[in-house]
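Record 1 of the preview.
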Amino acid sequence: MISKPISQQIQIITDLIEKRLGLIAVKSTITDHIPAYPYVSFTVMNVNYRKGTYGRESDETRFLPVTIPISFTVQSDKDTECWEKVQALRDLFVQGTELADLGVIVGNVGSITARDNILTVEYEYRKGFDVTINALDIINQSDGVDGYIDTADTHATVKE
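->
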């Protein structure tokens, strides 16, 4: 289990975006009410588990570093406004101290790219970047399983 659930980290991030920048942040896959321009959309891309074995914090707790890439896009009907808002959003992640104080550890912040889109008769300006959040996958083995195999039956029986 991720040390701080992804949904909780997203809630912290979206609350801070609204508090600091005055922008509503919604999932990119939203299909119901789309906020008024400008707004931020985001997508959790995946969870990357690092190669290797789990570290041991105690006899009962093991951990493995993971990274969670999240794609953020500012959407607006004005190009200049879109550039200004996406730069302010990126600064929020680059500075990262306020997020770290809230338990969200920013690992990497990518470059801003244009993601513009034409909507039938009008243009939607979209600028975005990817952020990597660092976390731990924690396994609590307090159920008595120590992670070692003491004995194993190596004789297979075949039923006819």
